[in-house]
Design goal:
It is a single chain. The chain has 149 residues and is of the alpha+beta class. Helix content is 23%, strand content 38%. Strand 6 and strand 7 form a beta hairpin. The chain is globular and about 55 Å long. The relative contact order is 0.20.
């Protein structure tokens, strides 16, 4: 009984430290820490708190689902990844379906052409920064659910 309580406190402390480090901008999870948790670095990075300074909107469009986003402030990063998942599936970011470079002249929009009429999809935009060879999820948008008509 005493070991179980101690283990719970240790796990809580670790979660607190990881959460605080994410808030302070150290959102990258070392591979040693993720292995200790029994998951990959990618899985561990999905549980960290990520600030939401990207505002995403979407709508059904003749060519697919049109996503547009705005940023609240100037963000530092290398590119945006566009993620899609199906409603009812919990956890994770879903499938990465597109990437838009920050240095490109493209506007902050993306059209998902791989959709089916009557199906719903949940989208999220994530700002990625490459640091020491690792992709770090710096910022994430709100999630939007859209049905293609």
């Amino acid at each position: 009984m005493k070991k179980a309580i101690s283990l719970r406190w240790i796990i809580l402390l670790i979660m607190l430290v990881v959460g605080v480090s994410g808030i302070l901008g150290y959102s990258y999870v070392s591979s040693d820490f993720s292995k200790w948790l029994g998951m990959t670095s990618e899985q561990a990075s999905q549980i960290l708190p990520v600030p939401h300074d990207i505002r995403l909107q979407g709508k059904s469009h003749k060519e697919g689902i049109l996503l547009k986003w705005k940023v609240k402030k100037v963000l530092s990063g290398d590119y945006y990844d566009v993620y899609r998942r199906m409603p009812g599936l919990e956890g994770g970011w879903g499938e990465m379906i597109g990437r838009i470079g920050l240095d490109s002249s493209e506007s902050l929009q993306f059209i998902d052409k791989n959709v089916e009429v009557g199906h719903g999809y949940i989208y999220q935009i994530v700002l990625i920064k490459v640091s020491n060879g690792y992709e770090v999820k710096e910022q994430a948008s709100n999630s939007v659910e859209i049905t293609y008509k």
